[in-house]
Amino acid sequence: MPVYTGIADLPTLRGFQVGALDAGLYAHFGKPTRPDLTLIASAAPCAAAAVFTTNLVKAAPVLLDQARLAANPSGIRAVLINTASANACTGERGYANAVQSAAWTAAAFGCAEDQVLVMSTGVIGTQLPMPRMQQGIAQLPPQLGSTPNHWQAAAQAIMTTDTKPKLAHSTYNGAALIGIAKGAGMIAPNMATMLSVIATDAQIAPLLLQEMLSRAADQSFNRIVVDGDMSTNDTLLILANGTSGVLIDETNARHFEAALTELCTVLAQAIVRDGEGVTKFITLQISGARSAAEARQIGNAIATSPLVKTAFYGGDPNWGRILAAAGRSGIALDPTRLALWYNDLQLVADGTPLNYDEGRAKLHAQQAEVVVRLDLGAGDAESVIWTCDLSHDYVSINGHYRT
Amino acid sequence: MPVYTGIADLPTLRGFQVGALDAGLYAHFGKPTRPDLTLIASAAPCAAAAVFTTNLVKAAPVLLDQARLAANPSGIRAVLINTASANACTGERGYANAVQSAAWTAAAFGCAEDQVLVMSTGVIGTQLPMPRMQQGIAQLPPQLGSTPNHWQAAAQAIMTTDTKPKLAHSTYNGAALIGIAKGAGMIAPNMATMLSVIATDAQIAPLLLQEMLSRAADQSFNRIVVDGDMSTNDTLLILANGTSGVLIDETNARHFEAALTELCTVLAQAIVRDGEGVTKFITLQISGARSAAEARQIGNAIATSPLVKTAFYGGDPNWGRILAAAGRSGIALDPTRLALWYNDLQLVADGTPLNYDEGRAKLHAQQAEVVVRLDLGAGDAESVIWTCDLSHDYVSINGHYRT
């Protein structure tokens, strides 16, 4: 089940309709106008599962969705997504606004309130502009459709500082999957939140769906690091409406999960590639660890080091910073057993530099995509993290995002 | 015992001599020439204590100094400091080079090898240029002196990406203290390592000296965050040669320790103010915590957040990012009890924004020095972290530091 990106050859996804429009949410905050309100809706009730931010400061839509999914995991019909305001740190009023937005969506689309989920991304601490939300939601139903262009419009309308829409699709045995996602800062994942919705017309029980999604997220979205911040709003949601009649159960779940994992991986990597100010895509392979968890913690320490990330930006094969970041990761390691490669060029063995060709090392470090492998020489476990550099543009984007 | 910075009114510090010169270490690596080798020496053996990096990847000089201080805490006579190469990740050869440098220093200055400590800062993974080290060390003795200009020269010769020398001094009851330090990246503390040497002519037993230094470091150098990286080389060393005859013991240690702590605080804050690309000095006060350790962990999460630091750079009072960073710190907190101030202007109460004046908030955020207070509403404990913004210049400096 290969995964494709973009809308070319988009499979038919039965029973789902999507639509987006400019509800004037950005305009309300004095910013240039753009599509900012999206609806993904299913004719049939969906089994639904989700993975949310572990940040203790959770946005109102996250709290509402968690409650609704717990109460009604088999009956979701619609998800409303707005940009411009994250509806986070907005107190009881913010929660009431999330509930109200869902109620308006239910009325406009024709389903029950508890069948609607909501997602928000944008600035923390701003209340949703409710009159504009109400008006925009009422105008959404006529926008709904299921063509490739409708999915493309949805992928575009959920963007914030993203520069490209992120859309991927796959099929399994007659069932289809379409996923959209947005980044682009606060990934590891904070603001300009990670949001992703995957829709499938396969028929899957909610518990199995949750198990598959959690494992897929762990192999994909949870392995990307842009800046090490973690959003108040991060949400990965899957809706399965069963309309294809293709049943996924223990006999074939493994295959479906493989397709789901690959789709999540493609979307997750697309978020890194389009991270704020990103000029380089770095695959960090941490091998020779005592456990995958330890490998991952070391990978995260490296991927969040400003010194490492600025060296990536400069195309400087500054492996010393990578070893230093590993050394402060909190994981026990033997510095004299470390080995390091840029792509296939080994720079370090036994914790000390080899007599490598600096010009060749620089050529590797200056490529747009670099695989950096650090071997700890301590065991057989390994982990992969996908990350990026820290550029002047990251500082420009985030120094002035809000004001 | 007020602490003064710079060389004006530098007290007489008996029995110490310092000197610096250009040994061509930078030139060896093809960089512009500058003073790069410094000696601080005492006529009498010193009680010595130190605090070193907790990074598991420790530079050769750190390993050597740890061994020498353990074996000979009352007999240190000299410390040799070089820039241009950190002598980290250099294996057995690097360790042998540190030993050899100390041996040459002992021969040149006229003391025993085990009375010499060494410190290095600069690029990780490069071996010391030993012929130049040998020649430079041999030329150091004629440079030694104890005038303010000699101390100023030492403070300048240990700089790497620092833009200003850092020198502070104080007196206690007839004894003097002079401290020098360098930053400027990898502070929390990685490369362009934090190094600091404090010399005093007070007479102090090594154990008491170590206790006082450890506590002083915990209140000063361990509370600064530039980029969250931690060096392979960080070292804070104090030498007490007793030449003043002023005895510090349990009867007056409290007073001496207060002066030492203030001196360390002044040097630590100077490192942040001169951090790589720094345009703003931020005092983070985390109050209302259940414990000081929890307050500190939350402060560190905020101080290392690229999104928070770029907002500081932009002069944007983007408190949402601060709350989000606190929420992912790993410390349990109740988001609905959070309160936040920029200087004396409260922006957040009960986890939600007050109806504050955005223009006033921005004026506060755009000052060169800002006090940000986050109250957790959970207890009576508090902690302070001194940190800075993340600017375009930080990226420029670290994107191209090495190449």
Spell out the key features of this protein.
12 helices, 9-stranded mixed β-sheet, Ubiquitin-like (UB roll), homodimer, L-amino peptidase D-ALA esterase/amidase, 2 domains, 403 residues, alpha/beta
Strand content of chain A: 25-35%
Number of H- or I-type helical stretches of chain A: 12
Identify the CATH class of the largest domain in chain A: Alpha Beta
Quaternary organisation of the protein chains: homodimer
Q: What does the overall shape of chain A look like?
A: globular
Number of domains of chain A: 2
Report the uncertain regions of chain A: 186-192
Largest β-sheet summary of chain A: 9 strands, mixed
Number of strands of chain A: 18
CATH superfamily of the largest domain in chain A: L-amino peptidase D-ALA esterase/amidase
Helix content of chain A: 25-40%
Largest interface: A-B, 70 and 70 residues
What Rg of chain A is obtained from the alpha carbons, in whole angstroms? 22 Å
Structural class of chain A: alpha/beta
The rounded distance between the terminal residues' Cα atoms of chain A is 45 Å
